[in-house]
């Protein structure tokens, strides 16, 4: 500490140490704020249509189109260390039978960036899926699908954390043990253009 | 020119160095604690950032310049020529 240059170095060096500890305590303080997000979903107008991925393409493939109602409250995720929350709705389905080798499929239907606690109370009615959904093989094969409402908390300091709410067709929550969820969360992907499957015709 | 050099060097005495170091540590720890507590109580991280940066700037101002308070105990050297220098014994 004998000269100006050394004093600047020492003061700045200790400042970085203090800044590290303040940041670490800030990141740790997140555990003091337990969050209890809730969500309920109602599906409307689920249909599958065929189309071409590009107008120059000759390949026709199936697209899943749906509308949904979403009531969600993510405001409890906001505390002094929350920068923003990314919320998204995922459709999950497995393939039925051996026709499709891709047995686990997840796609994002809709998403939103929630910048504040005020914006974190979602009330969507008859919202259209934001992204078009198509299977890697081009056909959904009328699989059983489930919706999962997920979120990603982005803090100012510290680690990102994820959470989700998933439920079955009766609205019973399958994971994340959250309470107060209702609505239609799972469904069977309908055949393209609403046609009856060939097997059912044969049975009838 | 010497005055300018002295200002840039900013030498302080030994007692002043000890005081400057203690002052620096105490002020910066205090800044960190106040910044954290204020931000936590008001639930806004921007307070933490600005109190932290402001407190550090004040600490720099208090510690870095060679203030007269850091020069109160100058080292007193013995006057020149008061000690006898032993002659080297040739072997």
Automatic annotation (TrEMBL), chain A:
Q: Which GO terms describe its cellular component?
A: signal peptidase complex
The record's Gene Ontology biological-process terms are: protein targeting to ER; signal peptide processing
Record family assignment: Belongs to the SPCS3 family.
Q: Which residues cross the membrane?
A: 12-35
Q: What is this protein called?
A: Signal peptidase subunit 3
Keyword NADP on entry: no
Pfam families per record: SPC22
Q: Where in or outside the cell is it found?
A: Endoplasmic reticulum membrane
Q: How does it sit in the membrane?
A: Single-pass type II membrane protein
* Function (record text): Essential component of the signal peptidase complex (SPC) which catalyzes the cleavage of N-terminal signal sequences from nascent proteins as they are translocated into the lumen of the endoplasmic reticulum. Essential for the SPC catalytic activity, possibly by stabilizing and positioning the active center of the complex close to the lumenal surface. Essential for viability.
InterPro entries, from UniProt? SPC3
Keywords (alphabetical) are: Endoplasmic reticulum, Membrane, Signal-anchor, Transmembrane, Transmembrane helix
Q: Does the keyword Iron-sulfur apply?
A: no
UniProtKB/TrEMBL annotation, chain B:
Keywords for the protein's UniProt record, in alphabetical order: Endoplasmic reticulum, Membrane, Transmembrane, Transmembrane helix
Q: Which domain of life is it from?
A: Eukaryota
Q: Name one GO biological process term.
A: protein targeting to ER
The subcellular localization recorded is: Endoplasmic reticulum membrane
Q: How does it sit in the membrane?
A: Multi-pass membrane protein
Give a GO cellular-component term. signal peptidase complex
Pfam (any one)? SPC12
Q: Which residues cross the membrane?
A: 23-41, 47-64
Q: Which PANTHER family match?
A: MICROSOMAL SIGNAL PEPTIDASE 12 KDA SUBUNIT, SIGNAL PEPTIDASE COMPLEX SUBUNIT 1
Family according to the record: Belongs to the SPCS1 family.
Function per UniProt: Component of the signal peptidase complex (SPC) which catalyzes the cleavage of N-terminal signal sequences from nascent proteins as they are translocated into the lumen of the endoplasmic reticulum. Dispensable for SPC enzymatic activity.
Question: What name goes with this protein?
Answer: Signal peptidase complex subunit 1
Q: Where is the organism placed in the taxonomic lineage, from the top?
A: Eukaryota, Fungi, Dikarya, Ascomycota, Pezizomycotina
């Amino acid at each position: 500490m004998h000269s100006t240059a050394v004093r600047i170095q020492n003061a700045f060096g200790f400042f970085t140490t203090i800044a590290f500890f303040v940041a670490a305590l800030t990141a740790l303080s997140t555990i003091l704020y337990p969050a209890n997000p809730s969500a309920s979903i109602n599906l409307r107008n689920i249909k599958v249509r065929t189309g071409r991925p590009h107008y120059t393409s000759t390949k026709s493939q199936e697209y899943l189109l749906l509308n949904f109602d979403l009531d969600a409250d993510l405001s409890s995720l906001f505390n002094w260390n929350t920068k923003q929350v990314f919320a998204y709705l995922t459709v999950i389905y497995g393939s039925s039978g051996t026709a499709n080798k891709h047995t686990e499929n997840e796609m994002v239907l809709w998403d939103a960036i929630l910048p504040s606690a005020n914006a974190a109370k979602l009330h969507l009615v008859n919202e259209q899926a934001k992204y078009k959904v198509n299977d890697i093989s081009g056909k959904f094969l009328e699989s059983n699908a489930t919706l999962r409402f997920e979120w990603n908390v982005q803090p100012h300091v510290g680690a990102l954390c994820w959470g989700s709410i998933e439920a079955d067709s009766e609205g019973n929550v399958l994971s994340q043990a959250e309470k107060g969820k209702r609505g239609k969360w799972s469904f069977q992907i309908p055949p393209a253009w609403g046609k009856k499957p060939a097997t059912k015709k044969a049975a009838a | 020119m010497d005055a300018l050099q002295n200002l840039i060097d900013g030498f302080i005495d030994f007692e002043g160095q000890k005081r400057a170091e203690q002052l620096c540590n105490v002020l910066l720890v205090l800044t960190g604690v106040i910044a954290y507590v204020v931000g936590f109580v008001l639930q806004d991280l921007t307070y933490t950032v600005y109190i932290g940066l402001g407190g550090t700037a004040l600490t720099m101002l208090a510690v870095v310049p060679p203030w007269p308070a850091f020069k109160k105990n100058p080292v007193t050297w013995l006057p020149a020529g008061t000690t006898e220098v032993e002659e080297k014994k040739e072997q």
